[in-house]
Amino acid sequence: MEEEQSEFRHWDQLPPDVLGLIFTNLTLQELLTVIPCVCKSWSEAVTGPYCWQDIDLDEWSCRCQPHQLDRMLRMLVTRSSGSLCNLHVSGLLNDSIFSFITENAGSLRVLRVPHSKINDSIVEQTAPRLSTVTFLDLSYCPKIGAQAIEAIGKHCKLLVTLCRNMYFLDSAGKDEPEDEANAIAATMPRLKHLELGFHNISTECVLNIISSCPQLEHLDINGCLTVNRDLKFFKEKYPKLKIVGPHVEKVFKEYENLDFTIIDQDFYDDDFFESMMEEIAMELAE
């Protein structure tokens, strides 16, 4: 009986990498406010890199205060200690925080930063740091254009998925609406999945992308209203390529399937956030 019991270890005796793997099933709120209070080994595990190789702040970032997002990102990315593999966050407010992310992107494979206020120059400067990225989402980032896309294409040679969906008004306001698509065709031959929702591009531009990206398996041109709407044309010419669009029905269907994790509303409260950050700082100082 004693031999059988010796095969099992108490949870507080598990190594940090095992605890980190287990804790990835918890919510952000639980990781930051519950786990550190259980015991010393759990607190050490949650402040180490094993819990923060995958950071998903998408839902929280859509509802938090702007200053909270910057502080939270810097804390969690720092905790990852260069092991960050997957980051999903919406609405980066400035170039500084994007640059900080890329400084810690040595292991990064998936980067999703939709709705962010970053511009061409910062993407051009930091693109060489994103050489390991295979999945990139820059959808609804109105301040970037063809220069940023070209820089990504030149430096992110492993990129196979690019999401660059737009809002109709942002796309319609571009002086050279096809420049981004042409930059993709010129610099991203290894793409397998491409999303260009609501870009103001022509059928010829789409054909240029398809011919320049021979490995392309999925092309989303939803809302690209100037593209030939006869899908038979594309299916006959490229039978192995799945094309979504150019109709707009898909946009409205997606909203019906949105599923949000329930998070305590206090977690978004400014006073609660400040209190939580103070407690975390005290724990790190001990």
From TrEMBL:
PROSITE patterns: FBOX
Residues forming coiled coils: none
Spans traversing the lipid bilayer: none
InterPro entries the UniProt entry points to: F-box_dom (IPR001810), Leu-rich_rpt (IPR001611), LRR_dom_sf (IPR032675)
Domain (F-box): residue spans on this chain: 8-55
Matching PANTHER family: F-BOX DOMAIN CONTAINING PROTEIN, EXPRESSED, F-BOX DOMAIN, LEUCINE-RICH REPEAT DOMAIN SUPERFAMILY
Name assigned to this protein: F-box protein FBW2
Species of provenance: Gossypium hirsutum
